Amino acid sequence: MPKTVMIVDDSASLRQVVKMALTGAGYEVMEAGDGQEALTRLEGKKVQLVISDVNMPRMDGITFVKQLKQRPEYRFVPVIMLTTEGQDSKKEEGRAAGAKAWMVKPFQPAQMLAAVSKLVGP
């Protein structure tokens, strides 16, 4: 059964690029435009990984990861932050919230797929 990845980003074009890379590698993909929508869409669904932006309307990525990790069924789901933010303080905040990896945009799809397969397997 293919592994499912949730992409959370307010940029539809970025979600499209990430989705194409992931589906091309055999993953199932769910999408959300911000953290709040992602939490709603995840209700009762099983995902193996989340890729989230940091700067989004309504609910930013750091808040989203904190709330996601408070839910027992998602506590151990790895999260990759995919963002334009490169400061160490932001990375530290992400790590503290529970993010496992940090990638700065623009990114190489191959680099992202390597990180995904390292965290959840092919």
Automatic annotation (TrEMBL):
In this UniProt entry, the residues modified to 4-aspartylphosphate are D53
- Which Gene Ontology BP annotations are present? phosphorelay signal transduction system
Annotated ranges, domain Response regulatory: 4-120
Q: Which domain of life is it from?
A: Bacteria
Q: Which InterPro entries match?
A: Bact_response_regulator, CheY-like_superfamily, Sig_transdc_resp-reg_receiver
| Keywords (A to Z) from UniProt | Phosphoprotein
Stretches of the chain forming a coiled coil according to its record: none
A Pfam family reported for this protein in Swiss-Prot or TrEMBL? Response_reg
What Gene3D superfamilies would the database entry show? Answer: 3.40.50.2300
Name of the molecule in the record:
Chemotaxis protein CheY
Q: Which organism is it from?
A: Acidihalobacter prosperus
